[in-house]
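Example S7 (structure tokens).
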């Protein structure tokens, strides 16, 4: 029952849509900006880099601080970590404050993995995203540009590659289950871009 309670707390923490609310403070409705994602990237586009950075830090913190605290006081051993770690990511992606239509959960993902692994896995994920971004911009398209579809492929593909890293490192099965849940949520939050990419590939083929 204690784990269920903490999971609910972490879900609620993750569901706090700081970037969306900061946008409203600056009189910008992020749902009407770009792809309608109520996250830090759209906040950056709509209200400038200062609020954008604030949104990134707050979204990161809501995945990092509560989970680190709970682990620090002795909860979250073994498979108890699975719902605790996935909860803030799910909260952001399916926020009840936005009727289940939350953000894409990238910054909060970094926060969770930073708390779980003392920044190791989040740093590896950042490196993987950087490598995929360079490959897409210069080796793939050759135009030095990006797109929402390419970005989605990088985020979801990078998480798949992160699973390989977790498999070859001495992480336990609970950590790998967290990765699987995280990957599934990222695939859902980027589903529109991924489906668009699949449709384009099918037409080209």
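Recovered sequence:
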């Amino acid at each position: 029952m204690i784990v269920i309670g903490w999971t609910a707390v972490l879900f609620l923490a993750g569901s706090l849509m700081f970037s969306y609310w900061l946008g409203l403070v600056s009189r910008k409705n992020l749902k009407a900006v770009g792809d309608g994602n109520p996250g830090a990237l759209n906040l950056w586009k709509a209200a400038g880099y200062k609020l954008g950075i604030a949104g990134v830090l707050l979204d990161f913190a809501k995945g990092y601080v509560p989970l680190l605290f709970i682990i620090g006081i002795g909860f979250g051993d073994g498979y108890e970590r699975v719902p605790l770690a996935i909860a803030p990511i799910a909260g952001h992606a399916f926020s009840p404050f936005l009727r289940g239509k939350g953000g894409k959960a990238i910054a909060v993902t970094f926060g969770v993995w930073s708390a779980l692994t003392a920044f190791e896995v989040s740093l590896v994920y950042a490196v993987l995203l950087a490598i995929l971004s360079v490959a897409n911009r210069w080796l793939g398209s050759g135009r030095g540009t990006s797109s929402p579809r390419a970005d989605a492929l990088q985020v979801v593909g990078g998480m798949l590659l992160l699973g390989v890293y977790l498999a070859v490192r001495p992480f336990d099965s609970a950590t790998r289950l967290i990765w699987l849940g995280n990957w599934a949520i990222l695939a859902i939050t980027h589903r529109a871009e991924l489906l668009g990419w699949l449709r384009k590939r099918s037409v080209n083929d």
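Notes on this example. The chain has a mean pLDDT of 91.
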